[in-house]
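User: For my dataset I need records formatted as: sequence, then structure tokens, nothing else. Please produce one.
Assistant:
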Amino acid sequence: MFRNLPIVLSAEQLLERAFKRAKKVQIVDRNVLYKKKKTIISRTDSFATTVVTHLEQYVKKFPSVDNLHSFYQDLIDIKIDTNKLKKSLGAVDWARKTCQMIYSKQSKSLKKSKNINFLTQKQQEIYGRISSVVKQVNNELILLAEAQNIMKKFPDVHDIPTVVIAGYPNVGKSSILRCLSSAKPKIAQYPFTTKEIHVGHIERKEKYVIKRFQIIDTPGLLDRPFSKRNDIEKQALSALSTLANIIVFVIDATETCGYSLKDQLNLLSQVKKMFSNSSFIIVENKADLKKTDSKHLKISGETGEGIDNLIDEMFSLYELKE
């Protein structure tokens, strides 16, 4: 969805590109006066058109935030700031309209005159006024460039039944995603290895019908108030609130994750209250190292133990419809 966002140039880069293109324009005419006049007009038109076209492209190719899935709206607000993005797009659109108006009004006098000095002076005036407008929105162009780089890395999520894997950092969520799907998230032994949302898929054919799940690995959550959560945790909460049909909550009974079993169960209780409309599967990971007497499903993202049972429970919980 976001792969085709335009590369946004700074004011300096955009003006440099416009001037370079304009300088390459050369009109051929036997009449020296007309040759100079037509070249000046064509170069000015090229300069203005390049600027206006680029500004227009920036505005049109950025999707309307209000029309996006609520998950993407949350990501934009977390990583970019929705209000800043909208204001930047508005400012750039203002610049586009203003540059277009400047050229439309001034170009008429270019076509009427045969005085080369006047034409050159008018050309420089148009260059100067348009350049001034573009420079006024340089900060907004920089923000759009940053937004474009961020949004191009957003995961592709689809409107299909979705499993979201949640739990404390370092409990093995990414290992489980790797076992369940084709996704290959980064695996490491330190908190918040997963700093972004990772998406995988799993499907099963039942009675000639292919049933498919989208599986999302989220950054780790900590048992603390929302106001104290960082942007990494907020991404996880967004996935849980806007995407999850089923939540696979992962517990590390070995406590090698660095968090006590008590704290993990407290977080589970909190997540259940927050997302009561979702179905829950509670799993104890790292079963190859330790098994408790709880009724929770015992699995190992490292050895694959219990993963088939987890898949069976996922498919039995939700009647898949695509």
